[in-house]
Structures are given as structure tokens and as C-alpha cells.
Amino acid sequence: MKFLIVDDLHPFLINVFEQKNISYTYKPTISSQEIAECLQDFEAIIVRSKIHINQAILNQNPQLKLIVRAGSGLDNIDVDFAKKKKIHLINAPEANCDAVAEHCLAMLLTLMNKIHIANEQVKQKIWRREANRGVELQGKTIGIIGYGHTGKAFAKRLNSLGVKILSYDRNPEKADNYAQMTSIAHIQQEADVISLHVSLNEQSRKMFNQAFVESCSKPFWLLNSARGEVADTEAIVKGLEQGKILGAGLDVLENEKLNALSPQQEALFEKLVAMPNVILTPHVAGWTKESYLKISQVLAEKILQYLEKNSY
């Protein structure tokens, strides 16, 4: 099996391929157009986010047997169509879940304690103690929507902080001892913090919208480290303006190409930027130095298992 690697990966995976004599071509700077032109020479592709592997690409490459996503989500792959084509899919959600959990906790504590605001003020020799009085996390109820690897990792870190943790997942079998599995409606009634950890699909796209916000019984802090398209930006802005959302920590945006925003997106983005109770980070929650290595380690193990099982 010949692998085409089209994104930057930790050398660990390349070393494994070398040791196991696995045929590969490493082109981390290749363009999307170049991928489409040369993919027919490979049975497997390893990708992060460079290209959307859609029906057209899959139809043009009937030789493809394996698609490997170097990360958690599979939203840049037409999963259903790939499965119809009997193409095996591999991803690594367990590799960066700890990184995402720590990032979420950092954003939440920063928001609740106004650390980002106080930091900028003190640097300008502005000393405001009362204006920067924080709110303690202890005693609060945290609602985690999406209870896979990242949701569980976040709950595990919250567990020792004296909070009540509610979780929702379409698969109730994901329940564990860190959170009480419940409904979204229950989370909307009880949660002081709502953190989104769902994968992006047609069911989850813009699941966090104006109706969702209006269904929440009390003001809450919002965290989104999943995918930007899961949450409607206009609903977030309105919720913040109305005080229904106390603060937002957003590692992802609906359109992350900030130089190619539509006029409406630009207006909403400018509103977010101007709000002191909003923290924005560039989709880096799961992208730590440690997760960079872990992703390659997890992928190496899964790829070797696949090759062994299929007698390659």
C-alpha cells in the first residue's frame, strides 16, 4: 500500500514507515489541486485539513482503500460516501483530547477571573481591583455537550474543582463516573457553563443557535473548542449583548479564513473582538507540542493494525 502524506506530521510516523518499509510520499507543502492530480497513484492518504475529500475525489480515485485524518474530526471527509466505497477511515481523537481539555479549562478560568482584562490594564499602569473581581468555579454546574474523548477529558479535569458536571451525548453508553449523563434540555436549565465538544455533521451544524440560547434558564459562560460551524456566531453575539452569555471562550469560528469573511461575518467578528468578555484563539486547543507527537503515535499504531489485519 502506497501512502500520500499531504500535511505536516511529527517525524515519529515517518520513522515508523521507514522502519516497517511502508511505501510513502511526504509532501506537506502540496496544494489541493496537486493532491487531486496525483492521488490516483496512491491507495492511502494522510491528511489534516488541507483538502476536503468529497464524492468527486472519491469517485475519481477508486483505488483508495484508506483515509487517515491526523486529528480528531472527520468533517473534511465525506464519511458516508467513503464507507459506501468500502474505504477504511482512521483518525486520532484520543491523541489531542488532553490538550483540548486543558485549553478549555484555561479559557474558562481566565474568563471567570478576568485575567486577560486585568493583565492588559496593569501593563498600562491601570490598577482596578473591584472592576476585576472574579467569580469562583467551585459550586457551579458545568454542562458538557458531546461526551467523547475531549468531553471526558474536560470532565476529568473539572472533577476535583468542586463542580457539578452534566453531560449529553447521542450515545448514552459513553457515561462514566465523572459526569451525570442527561438531556440537553436539563443542561439548558441547570448549567452555569456550557462547553461544546460535538463532532461536526448535519445534526450538529448550528445546534447552538438563538433558540438554544433562549431555552437556557440562566446566564452562562460558553466554550467552543469543537468546530466553529456547530455554533451560530450571530446567536453568540446576541447572547453576549443581551447578557444571556456571560462570556465566551472560542477556539474555533464559523469562518476561520479571517481575510475572506463576508460582510456579515466581518461585522460579527468585529463585535466579538470588541467584547472584553470574549477570548479568541486560532484553533489551537488540540495543537500542543505533546499532541503533535501523540497524533503520530496513535496513527502509527492504528495504521500498523490495519495493514496487519488486511495482510499488506
Rg for CA atoms: 21 Å
Proper CATH architecture of the largest domain: 3-Layer(aba) Sandwich
Based on CA inertia axes, which overall geometry fits? Answer: globular
Tell me the major beta sheet.
7 strands, parallel
Write out the strand line-up for the largest beta sheet, numbering strands in chain order: 8-7-6-9-10-11-12
- Mean pLDDT across all residues, rounded? 97
Order of helices and strands: EHEHEHEHEHHEHEEHEHEHEHEH
Question: Helical proportion?
Answer: 25-40%
Structure commentary:
By secondary structure, the chain is α/β, with parallel strands linked by helices. It has 2 domains: about 1-90 and about 290-310, NAD(P)-binding Rossmann-like Domain (Rossmann fold); about 95-280, NAD(P)-binding Rossmann-like Domain (Rossmann fold, 3-Layer(aba) Sandwich), CATH 3.40.50. Helices cover about 40% and strands about 15% of the residues. It has helices at about 10-20, 30-40, 55-60, 80-85, 95-115, 115-125, 150-160, 185-190, 210-215, 235-240, 265-275, 290-310; strands at about 1-5, 25, 45, 65-70, 90, 140-145, 165-170, 180, 195, 220-225, 245-250, 280. The chain has a 7-stranded parallel sheet with strand order 8-7-6-9-10-11-12, with helices on both faces. Strands 2-1-3-4-5 form a 5-stranded parallel sheet. Helix 1 (about 10-20) runs parallel beside helix 12 (about 290-310). It starts with a strand and ends with a helix. The model has no long low-confidence stretch (mean pLDDT about 95).
